[in-house]
Amino acid sequence: MRGAFQALQWLDVLIIDPGAEESTTYPQIDLSIPNLYDKPEYKNADQIQLTLYCDIYARKDEYMEVQDLANKALSSLRHLSIAEYPIRTVSFSGRSMIDHSMAEELQRVNLIIDYKVIQSALLGRFLNTEKG
Fold it and tell me: Could you tell me where the DSSP H helices lie in 1-132?
């Protein structure tokens, strides 16, 4: 799974642009891959479903900026590769809300993206079995 985390590090460099001032702390992107779910469906292949959570925070009055950031993040994350092997986006969701749980009210977009990866036991590599 090193390739997935390298891709996320690349995304971090590509997407996060805190602005010209070094004191700026928003927008922020928080990424997590909590679990891999093994769901065997094939005799000679292993299927893994991976769920990625992406939370984007920005100041409350920066609604358009956070929406643009969410669209860029979603576009990049939908084409995320694990190592050199392709994966397929199964589903994704994104919604915007005001987060009142912090000292400053923030605009928050939560992206949840499911991926399906199939590893062929015969070839010993991951395959993208369905066309997107």
Answer: 2-15, 63-78
Residue 114: which residues within 8 A CB-CB, separation 6 or more?
49, 50, 51, 52, 89, 90, 91, 92
pTM (2 d.p.)? 0.50
- The verdict on residue 129 lying in a domain is no
* Number of domains the chain contains: 1
Cα–Cα distance between 75 and 57 in angstroms, integer?
17
Beta-bridge partner residues of 47: 118
Range of the domain at 46: 2-14+26-123
Q: What is the CATH number of the domain that holds 49?
A: 3.30.2000.10
9-58 tens-digit pLDDT: 444 444 444 444 444 455 556 666 655 555 556 566 666 666 777 777 77
